[in-house]
């Protein structure tokens, strides 16, 4: 969603009271046409149901910061999931050795990490 807003803000220069025609989702993918009289300031969803009124420049800065935070969070979750997967594999190997079983059968699934 931030990508779409960023593209719109980057594409449309801030020019005072610019009129904007758009579609608004009322829920369940039911869209209605809407006209915005003054699009020089926009409301941006900042999280937890809160919206903040910002200028185009403020919104662009916020989107850059938010996307970098989300990217860092995604990378950390990927690292954490790889560690958990390695720990599970180690426990399974330990159980296999304790039970005296042969090697684990090769899974036909493709590893994501």
TrEMBL record:
Coiled-coil ranges (or none): none
Gene Ontology annotations for the cellular component aspect, listed alphabetically: mediator complex
Pfam family, one: Prefoldin
Alphabetized CDD domains for the sequence: Prefoldin_UXT (cd23158)
GO MF annotation list: transcription corepressor activity
InterPro entries (alphabetical): Prefoldin (IPR009053), Prefoldin_subunit_alpha (IPR004127), UXT (IPR003994)
Biological process, per Gene Ontology: negative regulation of transcription by RNA polymerase II; positive regulation of transcription by RNA polymerase II
Domain of life: Eukaryota
The family this protein is said to belong to: Belongs to the UXT family.
Name by which UniProt lists this protein: Ubiquitously-expressed, prefoldin-like chaperone
